[in-house]
Protein backbone atom coordinates (compact mmCIF):
# COMPACT_ATOMS: atom_id res chain seq x y z
CA UNK A 1 0.00 0.00 0.00
CA UNK A 2 1.36 3.41 -0.95
CA UNK A 3 0.77 6.21 1.52
CA UNK A 4 -0.22 9.60 0.15
CA UNK A 5 1.10 12.44 2.27
CA UNK A 6 -1.07 15.53 2.66
CA UNK A 7 0.56 18.89 1.81
CA UNK A 8 2.39 20.34 4.79
CA UNK A 9 2.79 24.04 5.28
CA UNK A 10 6.33 25.30 5.62
CA UNK A 11 5.60 26.24 9.26
CA UNK A 12 4.36 22.72 10.08
CA UNK A 13 7.38 21.08 8.46
CA UNK A 14 9.64 23.43 10.37
CA UNK A 15 8.08 22.53 13.71
CA UNK A 16 8.38 18.81 13.08
CA UNK A 17 12.03 19.17 12.24
CA UNK A 18 12.76 21.34 15.27
CA UNK A 19 11.01 18.95 17.71
CA UNK A 20 13.32 16.09 16.69
CA UNK A 21 16.35 18.17 17.50
CA UNK A 22 14.98 20.21 20.40
CA UNK A 23 17.94 20.00 22.76
CA UNK A 24 20.54 20.73 20.11
CA UNK A 25 18.59 23.67 18.75
CA UNK A 26 18.07 25.20 22.21
CA UNK A 27 21.77 25.02 22.91
CA UNK A 28 22.56 26.51 19.49
CA UNK A 29 20.14 29.40 20.11
CA UNK A 30 21.62 30.11 23.53
CA UNK A 31 25.13 30.21 22.12
CA UNK A 32 24.11 32.62 19.41
CA UNK A 33 21.86 34.80 21.59
CA UNK A 34 18.87 33.92 19.45
CA UNK A 35 15.70 33.12 21.39
CA UNK A 36 13.44 32.25 18.50
CA UNK A 37 13.30 32.02 14.75
CA UNK A 38 10.78 34.14 12.91
CA UNK A 39 9.98 32.77 9.49
CA UNK A 40 8.27 35.05 6.96
CA UNK A 41 4.67 34.08 6.33
CA UNK A 42 4.27 32.07 3.18
CA UNK A 43 1.64 30.13 1.37
CA UNK A 44 1.45 26.45 2.29
CA UNK A 45 4.18 24.57 0.48
CA UNK A 46 3.84 20.84 -0.09
CA UNK A 47 7.13 19.15 0.80
CA UNK A 48 6.21 15.65 -0.28
CA UNK A 49 3.38 14.81 -2.62
CA UNK A 50 3.70 11.15 -3.48
CA UNK A 51 1.16 10.04 -6.03
CA UNK A 52 0.52 6.35 -6.33
CA UNK A 53 2.47 5.07 -9.31
CA UNK A 54 0.94 2.72 -11.80
CA UNK A 55 3.24 -0.15 -12.78
CA UNK A 56 6.38 1.82 -11.95
CA UNK A 57 9.80 0.51 -11.06
CA UNK A 58 11.29 1.57 -7.73
CA UNK A 59 13.65 3.92 -9.56
CA UNK A 60 10.77 5.55 -11.43
CA UNK A 61 8.81 5.92 -8.19
CA UNK A 62 11.80 7.49 -6.50
CA UNK A 63 12.22 9.84 -9.46
CA UNK A 64 8.62 10.96 -9.11
CA UNK A 65 9.08 11.72 -5.41
CA UNK A 66 12.25 13.71 -6.05
CA UNK A 67 10.60 15.61 -8.89
CA UNK A 68 7.65 16.50 -6.69
CA UNK A 69 10.01 17.57 -3.93
CA UNK A 70 11.98 19.79 -6.30
CA UNK A 71 8.84 21.40 -7.65
CA UNK A 72 7.35 21.91 -4.17
CA UNK A 73 10.15 24.10 -2.79
CA UNK A 74 9.61 27.62 -4.10
CA UNK A 75 11.78 30.72 -4.21
CA UNK A 76 10.28 32.15 -1.02
CA UNK A 77 11.26 29.05 0.93
CA UNK A 78 14.87 29.25 -0.18
CA UNK A 79 14.95 32.99 0.51
CA UNK A 80 13.59 32.43 4.03
CA UNK A 81 16.16 29.75 4.78
CA UNK A 82 19.04 31.90 3.53
CA UNK A 83 17.78 34.84 5.60
CA UNK A 84 17.75 32.67 8.72
CA UNK A 85 21.22 31.34 8.00
CA UNK A 86 22.46 34.92 7.67
CA UNK A 87 20.77 36.13 10.86
CA UNK A 88 22.15 33.33 13.08
CA UNK A 89 25.47 33.05 11.19
CA UNK A 90 24.84 29.43 10.20
CA UNK A 91 27.19 29.28 7.24
CA UNK A 92 27.33 25.50 7.06
CA UNK A 93 23.57 25.24 6.67
CA UNK A 94 23.58 28.11 4.22
CA UNK A 95 26.04 26.22 2.06
CA UNK A 96 23.79 23.16 2.15
CA UNK A 97 20.80 25.28 1.14
CA UNK A 98 22.86 26.67 -1.75
CA UNK A 99 23.41 23.14 -3.04
CA UNK A 100 19.65 22.55 -3.04
CA UNK A 101 18.80 25.61 -5.12
CA UNK A 102 18.50 24.80 -8.84
CA UNK A 103 21.12 26.75 -10.75
CA UNK A 104 18.52 27.95 -13.25
CA UNK A 105 16.45 29.43 -10.41
CA UNK A 106 19.49 31.18 -8.92
CA UNK A 107 20.43 32.65 -12.29
CA UNK A 108 17.04 34.20 -12.96
CA UNK A 109 16.23 35.45 -9.46
CA UNK A 110 18.25 38.49 -8.38
CA UNK A 111 16.82 38.60 -4.85
CA UNK A 112 17.73 34.99 -4.10
CA UNK A 113 21.26 35.44 -5.46
CA UNK A 114 21.66 38.61 -3.40
CA UNK A 115 20.77 36.82 -0.16
CA UNK A 116 23.21 34.01 -0.91
CA UNK A 117 25.95 36.49 -1.79
CA UNK A 118 25.34 38.45 1.44
CA UNK A 119 25.65 35.26 3.49
CA UNK A 120 29.00 34.34 1.93
CA UNK A 121 30.36 37.89 2.11
CA UNK A 122 29.38 38.29 5.75
CA UNK A 123 31.18 35.02 6.49
CA UNK A 124 34.36 36.19 4.79
CA UNK A 125 34.11 33.72 1.90
CA UNK A 126 34.76 36.31 -0.79
CA UNK A 127 35.67 33.84 -3.54
CA UNK A 128 32.27 32.17 -3.17
CA UNK A 129 30.51 35.52 -2.89
CA UNK A 130 32.17 36.88 -6.01
CA UNK A 131 31.32 33.71 -7.93
CA UNK A 132 27.63 34.24 -7.13
CA UNK A 133 28.04 37.90 -8.09
CA UNK A 134 29.60 37.05 -11.46
CA UNK A 135 26.69 34.76 -12.33
CA UNK A 136 23.96 37.18 -11.27
CA UNK A 137 21.50 38.52 -13.83
CA UNK A 138 20.72 42.24 -13.82
CA UNK A 139 22.96 42.92 -10.84
CA UNK A 140 22.68 46.67 -11.44
CA UNK A 141 18.99 46.68 -10.43
CA UNK A 142 19.94 47.88 -6.95
CA UNK A 143 23.01 48.72 -4.90
CA UNK A 144 22.25 46.03 -2.26
CA UNK A 145 24.34 43.33 -3.92
CA UNK A 146 27.26 45.63 -4.61
CA UNK A 147 27.22 46.96 -1.06
CA UNK A 148 27.24 43.45 0.41
CA UNK A 149 30.28 42.49 -1.63
CA UNK A 150 32.09 45.76 -0.95
CA UNK A 151 31.41 45.41 2.80
CA UNK A 152 32.75 41.85 2.75
CA UNK A 153 36.06 42.97 1.25
CA UNK A 154 36.31 45.90 3.66
CA UNK A 155 35.68 43.67 6.70
CA UNK A 156 38.65 41.51 5.69
CA UNK A 157 40.86 44.57 5.27
CA UNK A 158 40.95 44.15 1.48
CA UNK A 159 40.37 47.84 0.90
CA UNK A 160 41.85 47.94 -2.60
CA UNK A 161 39.40 45.26 -3.73
CA UNK A 162 36.54 47.14 -2.07
CA UNK A 163 37.46 50.40 -3.78
CA UNK A 164 37.95 48.73 -7.17
CA UNK A 165 34.50 47.16 -6.87
CA UNK A 166 32.98 50.50 -5.92
CA UNK A 167 34.36 52.16 -9.03
CA UNK A 168 33.29 49.18 -11.12
CA UNK A 169 29.74 49.65 -9.79
CA UNK A 170 29.72 53.26 -10.88
CA UNK A 171 31.24 52.44 -14.28
CA UNK A 172 28.82 49.57 -14.95
CA UNK A 173 25.71 51.58 -14.14
CA UNK A 174 26.91 54.71 -15.92
CA UNK A 175 28.34 52.69 -18.79
CA UNK A 176 24.99 51.26 -19.83
CA UNK A 177 23.50 54.76 -19.90
CA UNK A 178 26.43 56.02 -21.99
CA UNK A 179 25.98 53.17 -24.47
CA UNK A 180 22.28 53.97 -24.88
CA UNK A 181 23.16 57.64 -25.40
CA UNK A 182 25.72 56.72 -28.06
CA UNK A 183 23.14 54.70 -29.98
CA UNK A 184 20.50 57.43 -29.75
CA UNK A 185 22.98 60.13 -30.79
CA UNK A 186 24.11 58.29 -33.91
CA UNK A 187 27.73 58.08 -32.69
CA UNK A 188 28.23 54.42 -33.55
CA UNK A 189 30.54 55.42 -36.40
CA UNK A 190 32.74 57.52 -34.12
CA UNK A 191 35.91 55.44 -33.58
CA UNK A 192 36.99 57.42 -30.53
CA UNK A 193 33.66 56.81 -28.80
CA UNK A 194 33.62 53.11 -29.69
CA UNK A 195 37.19 52.60 -28.43
CA UNK A 196 36.15 54.13 -25.13
CA UNK A 197 33.12 51.82 -24.95
CA UNK A 198 35.29 48.74 -25.56
CA UNK A 199 37.57 49.75 -22.70
CA UNK A 200 34.66 50.62 -20.43
CA UNK A 201 32.77 47.35 -20.90
CA UNK A 202 35.98 45.32 -20.48
CA UNK A 203 36.80 47.09 -17.22
CA UNK A 204 33.25 46.44 -16.04
CA UNK A 205 33.81 42.72 -16.60
CA UNK A 206 31.62 42.31 -19.70
CA UNK A 207 34.19 41.08 -22.21
CA UNK A 208 31.47 39.75 -24.55
CA UNK A 209 29.85 43.16 -24.90
CA UNK A 210 33.30 44.74 -25.32
CA UNK A 211 33.97 42.40 -28.27
CA UNK A 212 30.57 43.20 -29.85
CA UNK A 213 31.39 46.90 -29.80
CA UNK A 214 34.90 46.21 -31.13
CA UNK A 215 33.47 44.28 -34.08
CA UNK A 216 31.34 47.31 -35.01
CA UNK A 217 34.39 49.55 -35.46
CA UNK A 218 34.72 49.79 -39.24
CA UNK A 219 38.10 51.54 -39.29
CA UNK A 220 40.21 50.38 -36.35
CA UNK A 221 43.36 52.13 -35.14
CA UNK A 222 46.11 51.00 -32.75
CA UNK A 223 43.99 52.06 -29.76
CA UNK A 224 41.17 49.76 -30.94
CA UNK A 225 43.45 46.74 -31.31
CA UNK A 226 45.42 47.32 -28.12
CA UNK A 227 42.30 47.91 -26.05
CA UNK A 228 40.71 44.65 -27.18
CA UNK A 229 44.00 42.77 -26.82
CA UNK A 230 44.68 43.98 -23.28
CA UNK A 231 41.04 43.36 -22.36
CA UNK A 232 41.34 39.70 -23.27
CA UNK A 233 44.64 39.48 -21.40
CA UNK A 234 43.15 41.11 -18.31
CA UNK A 235 40.43 38.46 -18.24
CA UNK A 236 42.82 35.58 -18.93
CA UNK A 237 41.25 34.72 -22.29
CA UNK A 238 44.52 33.83 -23.99
CA UNK A 239 43.24 32.10 -27.12
CA UNK A 240 41.10 35.07 -28.08
CA UNK A 241 44.04 37.39 -27.39
CA UNK A 242 46.18 35.40 -29.83
CA UNK A 243 43.37 35.48 -32.40
CA UNK A 244 43.20 39.27 -32.13
CA UNK A 245 46.98 39.47 -32.58
CA UNK A 246 46.83 37.33 -35.74
CA UNK A 247 43.85 39.30 -37.02
CA UNK A 248 45.92 42.47 -36.75
CA UNK A 249 48.40 41.03 -39.24
CA UNK A 250 45.66 39.68 -41.50
CA UNK A 251 44.13 43.15 -41.79
CA UNK A 252 47.48 44.76 -42.53
CA UNK A 253 48.00 46.47 -39.19
CA UNK A 254 51.51 46.53 -37.70
CA UNK A 255 51.48 45.87 -33.93
CA UNK A 256 53.21 48.49 -31.80
CA UNK A 257 55.27 48.05 -28.61
CA UNK A 258 52.14 47.83 -26.46
CA UNK A 259 50.65 45.04 -28.60
CA UNK A 260 53.90 43.08 -28.72
CA UNK A 261 54.66 43.41 -25.00
CA UNK A 262 51.12 42.39 -24.14
CA UNK A 263 51.04 39.28 -26.32
CA UNK A 264 54.50 38.13 -25.19
CA UNK A 265 53.17 37.79 -21.66
CA UNK A 266 50.58 35.30 -22.93
CA UNK A 267 52.55 33.22 -25.41
CA UNK A 268 52.79 29.57 -24.33
CA UNK A 269 55.01 28.47 -27.22
CA UNK A 270 58.77 29.12 -27.33
CA UNK A 271 58.61 28.86 -31.12
CA UNK A 272 56.11 31.72 -31.25
CA UNK A 273 58.30 33.82 -28.92
CA UNK A 274 61.24 33.31 -31.30
CA UNK A 275 59.08 34.24 -34.30
CA UNK A 276 57.91 37.44 -32.62
CA UNK A 277 61.52 38.21 -31.65
CA UNK A 278 62.60 37.78 -35.27
CA UNK A 279 59.80 40.04 -36.45
CA UNK A 280 60.76 42.86 -34.06
CA UNK A 281 64.42 42.57 -35.14
CA UNK A 282 63.39 42.96 -38.77
CA UNK A 283 61.41 46.03 -37.82
CA UNK A 284 64.38 47.39 -35.85
CA UNK A 285 62.50 47.79 -32.57
CA UNK A 286 64.09 45.00 -30.53
CA UNK A 287 65.64 47.53 -28.13
CA UNK A 288 62.39 49.27 -27.36
CA UNK A 289 62.44 49.09 -23.55
CA UNK A 290 59.03 47.50 -23.03
CA UNK A 291 59.60 44.97 -25.84
CA UNK A 292 63.05 43.98 -24.56
CA UNK A 293 61.69 43.56 -21.01
CA UNK A 294 58.85 41.42 -22.33
CA UNK A 295 61.28 39.25 -24.33
CA UNK A 296 63.49 38.68 -21.27
CA UNK A 297 60.42 37.65 -19.29
CA UNK A 298 59.14 35.37 -22.08
CA UNK A 299 62.50 33.60 -22.53
CA UNK A 300 62.87 33.21 -18.76
CA UNK A 301 59.42 31.64 -18.54
CA UNK A 302 60.56 29.06 -21.10
CA UNK A 303 63.84 28.47 -19.19
CA UNK A 304 65.92 30.02 -21.98
CA UNK A 305 68.14 31.91 -19.54
CA UNK A 306 71.07 32.25 -21.94
CA UNK A 307 68.88 34.23 -24.36
CA UNK A 308 67.46 36.28 -21.50
CA UNK A 309 70.96 37.12 -20.23
CA UNK A 310 72.17 38.02 -23.74
CA UNK A 311 69.30 40.45 -24.19
CA UNK A 312 69.88 41.95 -20.77
CA UNK A 313 73.60 42.47 -21.34
CA UNK A 314 73.07 44.16 -24.73
CA UNK A 315 70.26 46.50 -23.72
CA UNK A 316 71.21 50.18 -24.28
CA UNK A 317 69.02 51.23 -21.35
CA UNK A 318 67.36 49.52 -18.39
CA UNK A 319 64.65 50.42 -15.93
CA UNK A 320 63.55 48.86 -12.64
CA UNK A 321 61.28 46.45 -14.54
CA UNK A 322 64.35 45.14 -16.40
CA UNK A 323 66.22 44.48 -13.16
CA UNK A 324 63.20 42.89 -11.49
CA UNK A 325 62.67 40.62 -14.48
CA UNK A 326 66.27 39.36 -14.63
CA UNK A 327 66.47 38.87 -10.85
CA UNK A 328 63.19 36.96 -10.83
CA UNK A 329 64.45 34.82 -13.73
CA UNK A 330 67.33 33.67 -11.50
CA UNK A 331 65.26 33.03 -8.38
CA UNK A 332 66.82 29.58 -7.98
CA UNK A 333 70.40 30.68 -8.61
CA UNK A 334 73.01 32.73 -6.73
CA UNK A 335 73.21 34.90 -9.81
CA UNK A 336 70.12 36.68 -8.49
CA UNK A 337 72.34 38.18 -5.76
CA UNK A 338 74.95 39.22 -8.33
CA UNK A 339 72.33 41.00 -10.41
CA UNK A 340 71.03 42.78 -7.31
CA UNK A 341 74.56 43.97 -6.46
CA UNK A 342 75.02 45.14 -10.06
CA UNK A 343 71.70 46.97 -9.86
CA UNK A 344 72.89 48.93 -6.82
CA UNK A 345 76.27 49.71 -8.45
CA UNK A 346 74.47 51.06 -11.52
CA UNK A 347 72.51 53.43 -9.31
CA UNK A 348 69.11 51.87 -10.04
CA UNK A 349 66.66 52.13 -7.15
CA UNK A 350 65.05 48.83 -6.05
CA UNK A 351 61.32 48.84 -5.45
CA UNK A 352 58.98 46.61 -3.50
CA UNK A 353 58.84 44.01 -6.30
CA UNK A 354 62.64 43.88 -6.46
CA UNK A 355 62.79 42.72 -2.85
CA UNK A 356 60.05 40.14 -3.36
CA UNK A 357 62.19 38.65 -6.14
CA UNK A 358 65.50 38.73 -4.26
CA UNK A 359 64.05 37.49 -0.96
CA UNK A 360 62.34 34.64 -2.85
CA UNK A 361 65.74 33.69 -4.26
CA UNK A 362 67.26 33.70 -0.76
CA UNK A 363 64.43 31.47 0.49
CA UNK A 364 64.83 29.01 -2.38
CA UNK A 365 68.59 28.83 -1.77
CA UNK A 366 68.24 28.79 2.06
CA UNK A 367 70.55 31.82 2.35
CA UNK A 368 69.36 33.03 5.74
CA UNK A 369 72.09 35.62 6.41
CA UNK A 370 71.75 37.15 2.94
CA UNK A 371 67.98 37.24 3.34
CA UNK A 372 68.25 38.96 6.73
CA UNK A 373 70.70 41.51 5.32
CA UNK A 374 68.54 42.32 2.29
CA UNK A 375 65.40 42.56 4.42
CA UNK A 376 67.22 45.12 6.57
CA UNK A 377 68.36 47.02 3.44
CA UNK A 378 64.76 47.15 2.23
CA UNK A 379 63.40 48.56 5.50
CA UNK A 380 66.24 50.81 6.66
CA UNK A 381 68.12 52.01 3.59
CA UNK A 382 65.35 51.94 0.96
CA UNK A 383 62.57 52.88 3.40
CA UNK A 384 60.19 50.29 1.95
CA UNK A 385 57.53 49.01 4.36
CA UNK A 386 57.04 45.24 4.18
CA UNK A 387 53.91 43.96 2.45
CA UNK A 388 52.35 40.51 2.69
CA UNK A 389 54.63 39.04 0.01
CA UNK A 390 57.77 40.16 1.87
CA UNK A 391 56.61 38.49 5.07
CA UNK A 392 55.76 35.33 3.14
CA UNK A 393 59.31 35.32 1.74
CA UNK A 394 60.84 35.66 5.21
CA UNK A 395 58.63 32.92 6.67
CA UNK A 396 59.63 30.76 3.71
CA UNK A 397 63.30 31.66 4.24
CA UNK A 398 63.35 30.57 7.89
CA UNK A 399 60.98 27.68 7.32
CA UNK A 400 62.92 26.07 4.47
CA UNK A 401 66.06 26.37 6.61
CA UNK A 402 64.40 24.42 9.43
CA UNK A 403 64.00 27.41 11.74
CA UNK A 404 60.29 26.83 12.22
CA UNK A 405 59.93 28.73 15.50
CA UNK A 406 61.60 31.82 14.02
CA UNK A 407 59.31 31.58 11.01
CA UNK A 408 56.30 31.38 13.32
CA UNK A 409 57.67 34.27 15.36
CA UNK A 410 57.56 36.55 12.31
CA UNK A 411 53.80 35.98 12.13
CA UNK A 412 53.09 36.33 15.85
CA UNK A 413 55.53 39.14 16.68
CA UNK A 414 56.80 40.80 13.52
CA UNK A 415 53.78 41.60 11.36
CA UNK A 416 51.75 44.82 11.60
CA UNK A 417 48.67 43.17 10.09
CA UNK A 418 46.97 39.78 9.97
CA UNK A 419 48.84 37.11 8.04
CA UNK A 420 47.25 35.95 4.79
CA UNK A 421 47.16 32.58 3.01
CA UNK A 422 50.60 33.01 1.39
CA UNK A 423 52.25 33.51 4.78
CA UNK A 424 50.46 30.66 6.55
CA UNK A 425 50.95 28.47 3.47
CA UNK A 426 54.72 29.00 3.60
CA UNK A 427 54.72 28.03 7.28
CA UNK A 428 52.60 24.91 6.74
CA UNK A 429 54.90 23.71 3.96
CA UNK A 430 57.93 24.23 6.20
CA UNK A 431 56.23 22.20 8.94
CA UNK A 432 55.67 19.43 6.39
CA UNK A 433 59.35 19.50 5.36
CA UNK A 434 60.58 19.24 8.94
CA UNK A 435 57.76 17.32 10.60
CA UNK A 436 56.63 19.98 13.05
CA UNK A 437 53.17 18.84 14.10
CA UNK A 438 52.29 21.49 16.70
CA UNK A 439 52.95 24.58 14.57
CA UNK A 440 51.72 22.74 11.48
CA UNK A 441 48.32 22.30 13.15
CA UNK A 442 48.13 26.02 13.92
CA UNK A 443 49.02 26.96 10.33
CA UNK A 444 46.56 24.45 8.91
CA UNK A 445 43.67 25.68 11.08
CA UNK A 446 44.30 29.24 9.92
CA UNK A 447 44.35 28.12 6.28
CA UNK A 448 41.15 26.11 6.72
CA UNK A 449 39.45 29.37 7.71
CA UNK A 450 41.10 31.54 5.06
CA UNK A 451 40.89 29.02 2.19
CA UNK A 452 38.18 26.51 3.15
CA UNK A 453 38.00 25.01 -0.33
CA UNK A 454 41.73 24.50 -0.87
CA UNK A 455 42.20 20.74 -0.53
CA UNK A 456 46.00 21.04 -0.85
CA UNK A 457 46.23 22.38 2.72
CA UNK A 458 44.18 19.47 4.08
CA UNK A 459 46.37 16.96 2.27
CA UNK A 460 49.53 18.63 3.53
CA UNK A 461 48.34 18.34 7.14
CA UNK A 462 47.42 14.69 6.50
CA UNK A 463 50.98 14.08 5.30
CA UNK A 464 52.39 15.75 8.41
CA UNK A 465 50.28 13.44 10.58
CA UNK A 466 51.02 10.41 8.43
CA UNK A 467 54.78 10.91 8.54
CA UNK A 468 54.78 10.66 12.34
CA UNK A 469 52.27 7.80 12.51
CA UNK A 470 49.26 9.80 13.76
CA UNK A 471 46.81 7.78 11.71
CA UNK A 472 43.69 8.70 13.71
CA UNK A 473 44.36 12.35 12.96
CA UNK A 474 44.88 11.53 9.29
CA UNK A 475 41.39 10.02 9.25
CA UNK A 476 39.96 12.99 11.14
CA UNK A 477 41.26 15.42 8.52
CA UNK A 478 40.03 13.16 5.74
CA UNK A 479 36.53 13.26 7.21
CA UNK A 480 36.76 17.05 7.41
CA UNK A 481 37.48 17.06 3.68
CA UNK A 482 34.49 14.84 3.02
CA UNK A 483 32.26 17.08 5.12
CA UNK A 484 33.38 20.09 3.08
CA UNK A 485 32.92 18.32 -0.24
CA UNK A 486 36.66 18.06 -0.92
CA UNK A 487 36.90 14.27 -1.08
CA UNK A 488 37.74 14.13 -4.79
From TrEMBL:
> In this record, what's one Pfam family?
PPR
The highest taxon in the source lineage is Eukaryota
| GO molecular function term, any single one | RNA binding
Identify the SUPFAM superfamilies for this entry.
TPR-like
Renumbered ranges of PPR repeats? 142-176, 221-255, 288-322
InterPro entries linked to this entry: E_motif, PPR_At4g14850-like_plant, PPR_rpt, TPR-like_helical_dom_sf
Write out the entry's keywords from A to Z: Repeat
Key word Repeat present: yes
Keyword Nucleus attached: no
Q: Which PANTHER family match?
A: PENTATRICOPEPTIDE REPEAT-CONTAINING PROTEIN, UMP-CMP KINASE
Q: Give the protein name, as stated in the record.
A: Pentatricopeptide repeat-containing protein
Please report the organism this UniProt entry assigns to the protein.
Pyrus ussuriensis x Pyrus communis
